[in-house]
## 1
Amino acid sequence: MSPLSTSNSDLILAKENVHHLTYFPFHGLAGCIRTTLVLLGEPYEDHTLSFKEWMAQKSLTPFGHIPVLREVTKCGKSFEIAEISAIEFFLAKRSGNLLGKDFWEESQIRMFHSSTHALFTFLVHTVVQSPQSDRAAFLARFKKTNLPQWIRSHEKYLVANGSNGHYVGDQLSIADIKTASVIEHLINLTNGEGETPLISEELTPAIMAVKSNLEKHPQYAGWRTSQQYQEFTNGNLRFFGF
Ligand SMILES: N[C@@H](CCC(=O)N[C@@H](CS)C(=O)NCC(=O)O)C(=O)O
């Protein structure tokens, strides 16, 4: 990867570029990226890897992890970008309207996004990386401390912004997409038998408004009812259990 020259920067902003996302066949940590790609409505190809295919490709990726986004321009030049947050902000900036109206709005959007990203990566990484024998204790602690703390603060800030389904102002941002893309997994995590639900229309209406607001978007609604979305949901339930 070489630093972008001005001309590369121009090339990368071209609307006809094809976005190629490589990840596993589940939502995992790629929900916000896939949602943003769907909302952009630009040419986009989703490449999923089995674990065997991944092991063969791991050393070829920038940091040995996926997702990785490859941007292919009309003239065949290709640019690669890795790291979830970097990809999300790359797409948000490229979209031209997911980072607020000014620097302060963007800073707040980054703050809310970062809080949700930290919560969800902590959950996914610990579930995947901790020994099976430690998982129940980890999940119990997550549901008792980390998740309620996130819910309390996010509900509070969303109410303060008027419970309009947005964190900042009255327009969709990458922070809204981030929350909307993790919420159904957090609900699955806390809605099992014998569990105490923590997120619902009654308990957290402002958080739920972020989800329902995004679901009004025809492209997103269409993707959620697609077979591919359902397959990724099934993959998530099999692999993570939420
Ligand atoms: N720091 C990376 C972490 C991404 C990550 O954890 N990816 C997991 C999948 S959810 C992965 O690549 N797992 C396979 C591996 O590490 O070999 C990012 O932000 O993109």
## 2
Amino acid sequence: MEAHTSKVKALVASKCPKCRVGHMFVGNPYGIKRQRMNDLCPHCGFRFEIEPGYFYAAMYVSYGLSMAQLIIAGLFTYELTKSDSPWVYVAVLLVVTFVFAPFNYRFSRLILLYYLTPKVKYNPKYEDELPREDEILKMDL
Ligand SMILES: [Zn+2]
């Protein structure tokens, strides 16, 4: 029996929360082509957007992530420059906001599905075997 993929490892690799095999996103967050999210898991057929508008809740996760990044960036800027000018902070925080936007888009959705959606559970059965085509249709959550 093979060891199963750990939750954190699967999250960092942007895998499906149900099977931890299929990729949830297509493209690199910092690639030239824009990243996009698959509608269905290519491995187990799980529908990522559980219900219409489900990822509106990811905005709250994204807000939390960007607040943490901005506070850390602000403290670093203060430590490095000891500046009193608000414009130094405005410039640094704007850059940080834009640089982390693709990261936050991806990981806010992943964190929402992995940690804040109790009804989405990992099932090692899906990691071990490739389901049949007709099972994929029934598997919609
Ligand atoms: Zn899957």
